[in-house]
Amino acid sequence: MVEDAWNYTSGDDYTLEFLGYRFSFGTRDFEERVGAAAVKLGLVASNDLEDEEVADLVELAADGRIAAARSTLGSYLVRHWERLALVEGESLVYWLRKLVFRGAYLDHRVKEGLLEVAWDEDNAEFAYAEPSGGRALLELAPTPSWHALQFPRD
Question: How far, in Å, CA of 74 to CA of 79, rounded?
């Protein structure tokens, strides 16, 4: 386990380990991060999700499965799991978790003064930058896409 100074805590509702780090999240923080990860991966089109949809995504990210779907999104994930679980060898659960943890790790580094948040005009989004002016490499790492299998909202 990595030294506690590098671990992230926003509450104690969800405690998970990932790549040697321990992250502890409050419910709202975890829900928001999981929703944002699902959008970034293209699993859902927007972060405008119903409470039951968020609950299904949170269960998937936290437990690696959905035991009983609460929403049409959850039903879609369960019904099409064989196609959704792996895309080009990349695991959906792994990437949901990785993006949740990546965001928490970067936010922790901002809090510690090791990174700054900057507006990226070219991409029209916020990005992380080193105080010395360099761009954070973690944000440059490519993510796989589930856009082709995106949940079809009616």
Answer: 8
Q: Which residues contact 29 (CB under 8 A, 6 or more apart)?
A: 10, 11
Q: How many domains does the chain have?
A: 1
Global pTM value: 0.85
47 close to 154: Cβ distance less than 8 angstroms: no
Nearest to 88 by CA among 144, 37, 147: 144
AA letter at 116: E
Q: With respect to residue 154, please indicate whether it lies within any of the assigned structural domains.
A: no
Contact 43, 92 (CB under 8 A): yes
Q: Are strands 21-25 and 8-9 parallel, antiparallel or unpaired?
A: parallel
What average pLDDT does the structure give for the chain? 87
Please state the rounded mean pLDDT for residues 75-86: 97
